[in-house]
Amino acid sequence: MSAATPAPGAPAAEAPVLQVENLTVAFPTEDGVVRAVRGMNYAVAPREVLGIVGESGSGKSVSSMAVMGLLPRSAQITGRILFRGEDVLSMSPRQQRGLRGRRVSMIFQDPMTAMNPVYTVGDQLAEAVRSHSAVPQKVALKRAKDMLDLVGIPQAEARLRAYPHEFSGGMRQRAMIAMAIINDPDVIIADEPTTALDVTVQAQVLDTLMSVKDAVDAAIVFITHDLGVIAQVADRVLVMYAGKPVEIGTTTEVFSKPLMPYTAGLLGSTPSAEGTRAGERLRPISGAPPSLISLPQGCPFGPRCPLVRDDCRASEPELRHRGATGAALAGVAAGAPLPVVSPNHLAACHHSDELLAAADATRFFRAESEVTS
Predict the structure, then answer these.
(1) Which helix (H) or strand (E) element contains residue 68?
(2) Is residue 108 domain-resident?
(3) For residues 135-153, b (16+ Cβ closer than 10 Å) or e, as one string?
(4) Tens of pLDDT along 1-42?
(5) Residue 216 to residues 16, 181, 191: CA-CA distances in angstroms?
(6) What pLDDT, in 10s, does the model give residues 321-335?
(7) Using an 8 Å Cβ cutoff, are 176 and 207 in contact?
(8) In sequence order, what E strands does the chain have?
């Protein structure tokens, strides 16, 4: 796949600013090789928000750390990571350092461990500027103050002299956002940036992140396990399971008509006000994710999937477009319009047609008593 060729599920309007092609990441251990990422493909257009969701251990964060060049030396990485057409993996360490924090930046999950406790917030923000620009400390601190103002931290000039522990959780995360945007990056990778925050503060931080995204004209790769957050902020969503993307499409498409049982299971296990009012129970996915050292034969989701068949156990499905065939067409009433699947809505499932035919794809995860009642 060339730099000019869109990755699977890529938006066609603009050339991607970030493109990941067949990325694999493995970690040798005493128990065997952990295949943390197994063929990751995606593209992010300028100013787009791509959400990446999945359970813990699905490979979300490892793939983002590979993009940033922050994995340990023991990691075995193959594939290509293209930033504006240039392969990051083929760059020298010095070139990667010049890219990291300037053109591509990252917001980490826990700002308390991401920030240095013995330096003031102002000094750390100024250091981020001076690492990439030969400017005096005074100019860097002025830039730091402007960024704290932009992310909504009150009394920004006084806060420059404060230490991270003197900030509340929400303020620390805003300071991390300020650090991420201080060099006007083209891409921001946000790795679970709201997980440790309460709901009210989470909403404020999300609003801040979306505002500063527009201010610096950046694209965002938003990594989370919270589907509610993705519904609020993402233009497209990529669902990961066992180290591979299993579905990708616009947020509306994936949430309204999932084509992969795992996606339907995630949606069915997410609390909603509508479900609570109707007296419905959550529909959890049974079992646990497979070991990345010893994956099952065929589809890795097979042991947990209510639609599993012999063909699922025989071969792992590819991530590709799944049109309306088989059960999807059989389920259409006479005279009703045929179900339409967008060309950029891709899924890795042999039986997507059954999900497409269902009025509610999450019903496959209901207990038998719920289905028959």
Answers:
(1) helix 60-68
(2) no
(3) eeeeebbbbbbebbebbbb
(4) 444 445 555 554 678 999 999 999 999 999 999 999 999 999
(5) 17, 7, 19
(6) 886 554 444 444 444
(7) no
(8) 18-29, 32-44, 49-53, 76-83, 86-87, 104-107, 187-191, 219-224, 236-241, 244-250, 320-321, 346-347
Q: Are 34 and 293 in contact (CB under 8 A)?
A: yes
d(CA 363, CA 277): 18
Which tokens is 292 given? 């990345």
DSSP secondary structure of 86-144? EEGGGS-HHHHHHHBTTTEEEE-S-HHHHS-TTS-HHHHHHHHHHTTS---HHHHHHHH
Residue count (the chain): 373
User: CB of 253 within 8 A of CB of 342?
Assistant: yes
Establish if 349 belongs to a structural domain: yes
Instruction: Provide the token pair at 203.
Output: 């909403």
Region of 334 on the Ramachandran plot (φ > 0 left; ψ -120 to 50 alpha; else beta)? beta
Q: In what order do the strands lie in the sheet with 219-224?
A: 104-107, 187-191, 219-224, 49-53, 236-241, 244-250, 346-347, 320-321
- Whether residues 81 and 195 share a domain: the answer is yes
Give the number of domains in the chain. 3
Query: In this structure, which amino acid lies at residue 334?
Result: A
What is the domain extent for residue 212?
Answer: 1-103+186-256
Percent of the chain topping pLDDT 70: 87
How far, in Å, CA of 340 to CA of 327, rounded?
14
CA distance 262 to 54: 9
| CA angle (304 as vertex; 303, 308 as ends), nearest 5 | 65
